[in-house]
Specification:
- This protein is mostly beta strands and 143 residues long.
- It has one domain: Lipocalin (Beta Barrel).
- Strand 5 and strand 6 form a beta hairpin.
- The longest helix has 19 residues.
- The protein is globular, with a radius of gyration of 18 Å.
- The termini are far apart.
- 20% of the residues are buried.
- InterPro entries: DUF2147.
Length: 143
């Protein structure tokens, strides 16, 4: 009887741990397209049933205090650190879509979708119009 309870408990906690690692929620390391170096940590979170992402850390000390000079509206000249750059994604199957992503480097906002490629690899696609006209980045789960 004790063995059965132990086995059930182990299976229960293993399932919970596995499910937690199969989500986009968490902290992700972004990679610079040009240099290939880690640029920032973006924290992806859920709020009111939608997915958002904010810059939780800037890894390059030289850019730590940068503001979004090219942004428009309420984001203009706001610090990039702490800025919400992914807004309003909704889950559709294995994909999170129908949201927007802001590129603080150029201040432009794009349509966006994200997909979990593996438990530690996130595909992030920003595009104009249809997804054919855009760019894909891969982010890696921050340890």
């Amino acid at each position: 009887m004790k063995n059965k309870i132990l086995i059930i408990a182990v299976l229960f906690f293993t399932t919970i741990f596995y499910a937690q690692n199969q989500t986009v929620i968490g902290k992700w390391k972004t990679i610079d397209d040009e240099t290939g170096k880690a640029k920032s940590i973006v924290e992806i979170y859920e709020k009111s049933g939608k997915i958002y992402g904010k810059v939780a850390e800037i890894l390059d000390l030289e850019h730590k205090n940068n503001v979004c000079a090219n942004c428009t509206g309420s984001d203009k000249n706001k610090p990039i650190l702490g800025m919400v750059i992914i807004k309003g994604l909704t889950k559709e199957g294995d994909e999170y879509t129908n949201g927007k992503i802001l590129d603080p480097k150029n201040g432009k906002t794009y349509k966006c979708f994200i997909t979990l490629e593996s438990k530690d690899k996130l595909k992030v696609r920003g595009f104009v119009g249809i997804s054919l006209f855009g760019r894909t980045q891969y982010w890696y789960r921050a340890k």
